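We now fix the convention by which a protein and its fold are recorded. Think of the row as the fold of the chain written in a discrete alphabet. Here is one such record, which you should read through line by line.
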Amino acid sequence: MIFIKAIKNPEPKNRMKRRQDFLCLLQHQNGVVSMNKFLICTMIALMLVPVSFAASPVFFRGYAFLDGSTAANGTVVEVFINNASTSSAGVSIGQGVLADVTPQGRYVISFEASTGDNITFKINSAALVAANGTNTSAQQITAGMFVVENFNLSANSSANGVACTYASGCSGGYCVHNICRAASTNCGDGYCDTGESCSTDNSACSASQSCTNGCQTTATTTTSSSGSGGGGAVSLPSTTASAGSIASGETKSVAITEASLPVTTIELTASQSVSAVSVTVKESSAPSTANIVISSSSGSVYKYMEITQTAPSTSISNAKIKFKVPKSWLDLNKIGASTVALNRLAGTTWSKLPTTKLSEDTLNVYYEAETPGFSTFAVTGLKTIGFLDIISKIDDYYKNKVSFLSVIDFIDLYYKNK
């Protein structure tokens, strides 16, 4: 039946080839494979003719060592292609469906690369050191390379005060704003984090806030939760900014200074002269009457917002919204930075707005979206999927928890995020 379904849904050969690679990799991953699994791989292979494409899946596996010992669960292994500043793939040791049967320190990492590419590895963002059989030189991808076995990696933890990306790579146990620390907060570093009370870092808060157990503000709007069941009031941040007068054909940028709101700037272009224009941005909850903006299996919602402006809608010919998303939220929810989008609610239906990534710094990624009007908005992102997530989904299929086609869709999502 699975074979028939696949035949009835012909798709581009390169995508089918990628799926075959993932399904049949179970044989390499586990060493043994059931006859059922083998037959499925064989059936898919028989459906395909030889194909070629620029990049192919490659897998490295071995043991990772940190400070001379096998790496603990949570240690991050990343691969970089051709000296790129950002990693092409990363895995966290001890996670995934095979975690309970995988020896301590064992890693498996998958990525796409082309013949001739040079790859390097890092552990917790630290460069490799020559220990425990580690080859610290760049490895070149050769034709036909698929699974590379027993490729051990070694690195050392960073001392407090040294730049970091992951807490597991710091000897003090904490990576606070990309600096290794001995605690989860650091007074005087220019940031006011939750749980931190530090007057020195008041400058990190907005004008109406102080650093007392994080930035505490008095400039909030109280909104009541809706519904016949009643419910208590919740305090949500809100701000109103003035754009003043806008001449016909002029574009005016309105800065949104409330730090707890995602929006940083709103640009308004007037089709006719207007005066005393103001913009209000207010954080909100998910509209109870609207459709779901994104499923929890596909991604997450960062925040909902209501944005309004006082000029007649016919007098604004173009509007852009600039906003930011914390990297900490992206990492926590495993969201790909390139998949973040601003969605606008019209009636009960959400529409994804054209969203462009502008820049990033150590804390946030910055975006811009063009909108045909103002209403309720949602900032969303798609989940990133690694090789072990694919294995987990396939494992669910063999436990009759998901359908075969849902596995295929999951693999599609993996490549969509690439």
In short: The chain has a mean pLDDT of 78. Residues 2-157+386-416 form one domain.
